[in-house]
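Case study B.
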Amino acid sequence: MNNVISADANAVCVPAIAPAARPGDRLDQVDTPSLVLDLDAFEENLRTMQVLAERHGVALRPHAKAHRCPDIALRQIALGAQGVCCQKVTEAACFVSAGVRDIHISNEIVGPAKLDLLARLAAHANITVCVDNLRALHGLSEALVRHNSTVGVLVELDIGQKRCGVQTPQEAIALAQAVQQLPQVRFDGIQAYHGGIQHKRAHDRRREAAEKAARRIRRYLDALAGAGLDCRVVTGGGTGTAMFDVATGVYTEIQPGSYAFMDNDYGRLDWGDALEFRHSLFLLGTVMSTPTPQRAVVDLGLKSTSAESGAPRVFGMPHVTCVAIHDEHTMLELKEGADRLALGSQVRLIPGHCDPTFNLHDEVVAFRGRTVEAVWPISARGLSR
Amino acid sequence: MNNVISADANAVCVPAIAPAARPGDRLDQVDTPSLVLDLDAFEENLRTMQVLAERHGVALRPHAKAHRCPDIALRQIALGAQGVCCQKVTEAACFVSAGVRDIHISNEIVGPAKLDLLARLAAHANITVCVDNLRALHGLSEALVRHNSTVGVLVELDIGQKRCGVQTPQEAIALAQAVQQLPQVRFDGIQAYHGGIQHKRAHDRRREAAEKAARRIRRYLDALAGAGLDCRVVTGGGTGTAMFDVATGVYTEIQPGSYAFMDNDYGRLDWGDALEFRHSLFLLGTVMSTPTPQRAVVDLGLKSTSAESGAPRVFGMPHVTCVAIHDEHTMLELKEGADRLALGSQVRLIPGHCDPTFNLHDEVVAFRGRTVEAVWPISARGLSR
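Model:
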């Protein structure tokens, strides 16, 4: 194979590609596929969760992994959020660069390049990070010593998700004591997140699961206290259980992410009448083919919305169902007798799962009513190291 | 909400994020998650498909939607490919900028911004595009008149996929005749792609389905010929059916994409002993947590690999199974008695579906043996308009 073949990485597209949207545009002028955010619904969701947390004296630290968008994080913080959570060090670097100064990396960080970046980041912001392994903790401390920076450490507990985290109170105590003995790391407390219960549909089953998780956390806290280990921070909880988590008394902080957007996965839950979030995030698509009266094909697919939890849902058109999603197409089926969708008309879809959907887009088009108000870069898109 | 809040879109990450890999690095030094390409397997796959097409006198026009990477397209063309297919106009613009001069947009293009870009692109490269609707055809011709450029038009047939495409030979004839009457559009032939049969697992059932599709195309070709409409181009076929498509005698050109990479979806097919492709594309991950002897957690998830067709498959470790994938984690389960995976060790995963997986990454790390040979930008990532 010819080694001289090489595409120019810095080539600018000829001809240039026009932006999908500009502030002041009408929403129906936005080119598609685009990810769009209804600011009225979004702002209401932010306030709803902030008020819930404050009413219970619990800090709100929204998970920025949901959106990877600094403009959104800054708005969450302006309303009273403590800072944000990130899941990755490179993601955190992006938010620090955008001016966020308090970041919890709610994940285990392993590997020399990542530890090096983490230690350098800690010179620019208040950083906490999770640990569930003694060897990993030693690596973290050594990297921090090399860069003369400090982070807070939260011992992660596995309270039923069966992902990361220590398995017993004894392990938690041993790790916390090791943190206290190592340089440049500070024992701040614990993280206990149970993703598996966030999507239990029934309101009561979700509440029971959240309360059971809280009882497990309590047992860990008692064991740690018995060993003289005080947890300044107990962080966990998500959008599905936040309304129950805040009332358990075990958390000092909750870390929901999806509440700001309410994707289709969360939209399917039974919310009782306790807490209401609105769908604020949509995919805007255009009808590109109408081969039969009952069939319409929309110009977006798996490269614009993640579908591991199912196809997106059509918004505001009760007679239209999304029946399949391909790489670049979404297939809609119309009820018999319904008016054919017009070629070139716009369709709004609710994404199944907001986190990986945001990560497919370079920007989100923020609108109010029928007008584009801003176009926000999703600056941490693709930053998964 | 405070309107002055604004993240700096041009902010550079402070501190800077180091590249994941550099040419000359050992593969086990590459930071993770990374998308990596085994060049020996990749080049063999390219040759296998090129030889198949040439032996049957059929042109090969690989689908660039599979990789969105100009460096890969240029290698396919250097080996004899006719050009590439794209699915989107912005994607095509990227490949034109990288030096590709013959592009078939295998999709319907609707909307003023897209038609404007398409018409401007046609001044820089030989472009063909699909049409399945008379109104859309008029819009295309008008945009081309405005820019004084020309494209070839392929009438798309729905031969069973039930996506885009005309439904009857009469519709095909009417559209083709309209193309002949409108300015700046040239009738070049037909596109007939049946994605639904590409993944039929059994070799014989896939062959029968491909032959049935070819018979449908033949009926369309006969009807068009009866109306005096000659099809210079008959394009279609994919990785799953290419071996059968080339022998049917109806296609002048095949447009497979995944053959170069052989993802897990295609790897599951029964290939008989007729055609062999090797897995060349992998996700490189790091074991970031080993909370129990049987459990290992890898530092990549839905933001690094698409999973709508299932979790990725572990490569080269028969005792390890991928049991779940979350946003940023992949859960591995070890057979009882197997050695625990070492924290910090690398794992290679075969992605379920290559097209949307490429679209999650900014670059692909090309390696040979144990050494990184190049890092290729996936320049058309995210270009879905």
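The two ends of chain A are 31 Å apart (CA to CA). The remaining cases will be described in the next quarterly update.
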